[in-house]
Amino acid sequence: MQNLRSPKWIFLANTAPLLVYLLVCAGEYSVVHTLLPAASVGEWQAFGAVLALLGLGGAGYAGLQMVRRQPVSAWYSVAALLAYSLWLCLLTTQADELLPRSVPAWMVPTNPILMAWTFLMPTLAHAMLALVARFTPDDQPHQAAPNILFAVVVPMGWALVFGVLSWVSQLFRGSSGTQVYTGPSVWETVGTVIIVVALVVGTLSFFFFLTRALFITSRRRERSWADGGLVWKIVVTIVLPLIGLGVNNGLFFGQGFREANGIFGNFSSPWFYILTIVNGVLLCLPDSGRPGLRLAQLLGRSALFGFTFYFFLVFLPFLPLAIPAIILIGAGFLLLAPLLLFVVHVRQLSDDVAALRAVYSPRLVTAALVAGLAVLPLYFTGSFWHRRQVLHEALAYVYTPDYTQPPHVDAEALAATLAQVRQNKDRNQELFFGSQQPYLSTYFNWLVLDNLMLSEHKINELELIFKGAVPDPNYLARSRFNSSPSTQNFTGADLDGFNDPAPNPDAPQLRSAAVRSTYDARQQAWVSWVDLEVANRNSSFQNREYSTAIRLPEGCWVGDYTLTIGNRQEHGILAEKKAATWVFAQILSENSSRDPGLLAYRGPNEIAVRVYPVSGAEARHTSIQFLHKEPCTLTVDGRTLALGDSAAAPLTASISVPGSGVAYVSAAAKQRLPLVQRRPYYHFLLDASASRPGSAKAFRERVASQVAQPMPNGAAPRFSLVNAATIPVAAGTDWADALGKIPGTGGFYLSGAIRRVLFDTQEHPSATYPVLVAVTDDFNNAVLDADFEDFQIAYPESDVFYVLGPDGHLVPHSLRHETRKPLQLGQVALPAPGAPVPVRAWPDAAHPRAYLPATPTAAVVIVGRPTVPTANAPASTRWLAGLLLRGYGQWQSFHPEITDRERVPFIQASFRAGILTPFTSFLALENNAQKAALYRKQEQTLAATASLDTMENENLAPSATATPIDSGALLLLAAGLLLAGWHLRRMRAIAGTRQL
Fold first, then answer.
1. Closest CA to 662 of 490, 861, 842, 847
2. Structural domains of the chain, count
3. Do the domain assignments include residue 11?
4. Are 225 and 362 found together in one domain?
5. What percent of the chain clears pLDDT 90, i.e. is strictly above it?
6. Residues facing 534 on adjacent strands
7. Among 755, 824, 848, 836, CA closest to 794
8. What is the reported pLDDT for 960?
9. pTM for the full predicted model
10. Neighbouring C-beta atoms of residue 411, cutoff 10 Å
11. 507 CB contacts (<8 Å, ≥6 apart)?
12. What's the Rg (C-alpha) of the chain?
């Protein structure tokens, strides 16, 4: 341990964590500084300056000592212990001044006070160990007993000091009589100073004497039971850690190994107990006199040092709690077990290295030590990286698939990964860490989830697709009527917070709507502003939210958004959609009067408008700018609004940019396209999941009965076997025989099958089209999207698919909306399956490249891979930029495999053009702090995989994302309060009662 006096450790234990802490705090300060009062700004600057000076002083001293080739002196260790302890105490007592209650907690995800207790603990630990090493040289004899005695006396001294001060406080209070409280008295101020000094000096003294006693005891070479050396080691390395694990996991309270929640984290796995025993045995084994065996011992002990260091790191911020815990509950010594084990382990490794260097080359010994130390970090990194690959392969297959490729997902590994993702999401507030594992869960979330999250809907959906079952038995019942879209691409459907809510009669209503339209001759398009005024139905309502949906016609883009906040008109920031939705949700969770407004796509042709808050009798005003090529109409809350001049001459030609891969076909131009009729064919999607029947006989009879009823001008039917994958049955092959041979695995992933068939139809236009029929015994078990509206160009004849159930009847369902809900034949006029339906052939009937529905509306046609306007090659007008973005988004619906690669350039193109896309949102914010938080969150979401989430899809309640510090927020805060303000607040509370 004398090596700990090397100056290089100052850079590792002090300079590095201090630099990280200052950088993180600077990031938090840059977001919230505009919300802070002048006094708080001064506090931030003062504490930051003092800490920076301390860090620079330590680094400078370390550099000087390295030049001098001298170890760290005792004076530095004492100065560092006192200075940083005092700084921590003052910081904790000033917590309310640094972060007033007016600053929303979501803007500061990693609280600076809590971070300080974690990042500065390595500095205090190193200074303490260096001080112990300085006063315990190896060439002099030392006795452990006096140090143990002094360590025991410290808690007794604490109890005595607190008892005396409490008695004196009661004495002064009793003699003061009834008086008006005018603030702390002289006695209270003196008592506070005494308490702080006792806390700091007592805590540091306790750990100095305890660590020195451990250091002296660990130097003993005796290994016999007679002198107690081996017994002591067994207690420290095996008994105490096992008892600590048992207490944490509730093993002594009948909960057992499978209890997922613990006081300090989830250490319920039997592997923690096994590694504890193996680690203790390796440390207790006598040192071998044979160099080869001693080298093997070094490898084993160094390989498990990561295990010891992990628990030392976990409990390091909580060590100040040991003394009050010993006084109050008598079990505080268990908090010291990781420290005791750490000292023993470090000493043992030092002895091994010193002994082996006398026999082997120092480089060989160092290499063996480093190799052993790297075992556990590399194991966890490799394990987490493998889980990242497994999870991202599954996410890519389901949410950003290549429709030409089969899945390559390890279902068992995916199940284990999803279980860990779900476990890390559980932040049980009744405990300090709940089911998470400190630092490991954070590392997992960073490496596997890019510091975002996976919504519960997606976890359940992945489990259902690849395993055929979900742990939550109510999931299928819920999703049966409220299924969320399973695709996350540019055109559709990431509906975070935009699911249709239940009608609320108390919600604000639209009071008035007005349109301002002008024709822009330069871009030959209309620019229209729709002004909305909303207000509460009842003036007594407070902090209500107004929301509505607006369906857009083809060729109409959103170019701007404003919200009146106070006396100013605030333009919305065009931001990444997930980041904007997350910030909007966080502001709503404050339940305050802060003003956000959000405008985003909720489907490929529909936008959602949300305004908050609408309070009292106040009317809120918001406006949306639309760019459209032709006059059109919009419906807003039942009101029809005409945009542009309907008397203007109609556009009779199609519009396209040469080489762009996209064209706009006006309503008039579409009507001149030739009408054709394609031949239909049944495409049966056969349930081959784990829940299907064991025999294909029932399916054969059902399908044969349906095929026996030929469609007019129908083509030969096709078949696909559907579980987690979609397996086409080759023409001429007995599909029933193929179904009987395939093992029933996974779930009935009907969404994937439908999308793959429609993808093939769109990619290879032909004179035939599919009539989709799902064949299953239980349609409720199918994994099915809420709609396939983003694929609507692939089914121009009809948006109906069918379910062939056990009764042998075809039940119609809509591909466009509410896919699980059967269509009512009495309410909707449905043609028979395969009935002749004419469509428009584009550009002509001889060489069609696309088929369009024979409706009187305009259409956007993709004729290849559309281009995206870039900074070097921008579109000539904003309307054309919107057309290119629309075409590319529509093409990307069928090629989601490029999402992660091209999502950021697509979003940047949206920013440059100022045109809303389904991957961006307009967000109007009240202040600069909210805007800074938005940009910070946007950087995080743009750097992550597109399929990950920022919050749960089922509701708008914000979801916590694990951060390096917040995992133990309550306990870290308790540590700070105990060190610096515990008794102070108690005395103030007593004094506060002395009022008239």
1. 861
2. 5
3. yes
4. yes
5. 49
6. 510, 620
7. 755
8. 39
9. 0.83
10. 18
11. 537, 544, 545, 546, 547
12. 35
Torsion from C-alpha of 921, 925, 928, 932, nearest 10 degrees: -30
Whether residues 17 and 129 share a domain: the answer is yes
Q: What is the pLDDT of residue 109?
A: 79
510 forms bridges with which residues in the sheet? 534
959 close to 952: Cβ distance less than 8 angstroms:
yes
Check whether residue 547 and residue 618 sit in a common domain: yes
User: If you count them, how many residues does the chain have?
Assistant: 996
Tokens of 433: 């860490």
Residues 984, 193: Cα–Cα separation, whole Å: 9
Average pLDDT over residues 190-207: 68
Distance CA 664, CA 557 (A): 13
Q: What is the dihedral of CA 242, 245, 248, 252, to 10 degrees?
A: -50
Question: Which letter does DSSP use for residue 538 in this model?
Answer: S
Distance between CA atoms of residues 308 and 301, nearest Å: 10
Under 8 Å between Cβ of 664 and 629: yes
pLDDT of 492-515, one tens digit each?
A: 334 444 445 556 778 899 999 999
Q: How many Cα atoms are found within 13 Å in the side-chain-facing hemisphere of 563?
A: 24
- Separation CA 848–CA 865 (nearest Å): 17
Maximum Cα interatomic distance, the chain, rounded to a whole number of Å: 107
Strand 726-728 versus strand 718-722 pairing type = antiparallel
Q: Which amino acid is at 477?
A: A
414 is in which domain, residue-wise? 381-483
Backbone angles phi, psi at 708, to 5 degrees: -65, -15
Cα(950)–Cα(581) distance, integer angstroms: 9
- The answer to whether the CB of 369 falls within 8 A of the CB of 349 is yes
Distance CA 798, CA 771 (A): 9
pLDDT at 222: 44
Residue 452 CA neighbour count, 13 Å, CB half: 24
Same domain, 87 and 232: yes
Give the DSSP per-residue string, 278-312: HHHHHHHSPPPSSHHHHHHHHHHHHHTHHHHHHHH
Report pLDDT digits (tens) over 36-93.
999 999 999 999 999 999 999 999 999 999 999 999 999 999 999 989 988 988 888 8
For residue 770, pLDDT beyond 50 = yes
CB 565 within 8 A of CB 618: no
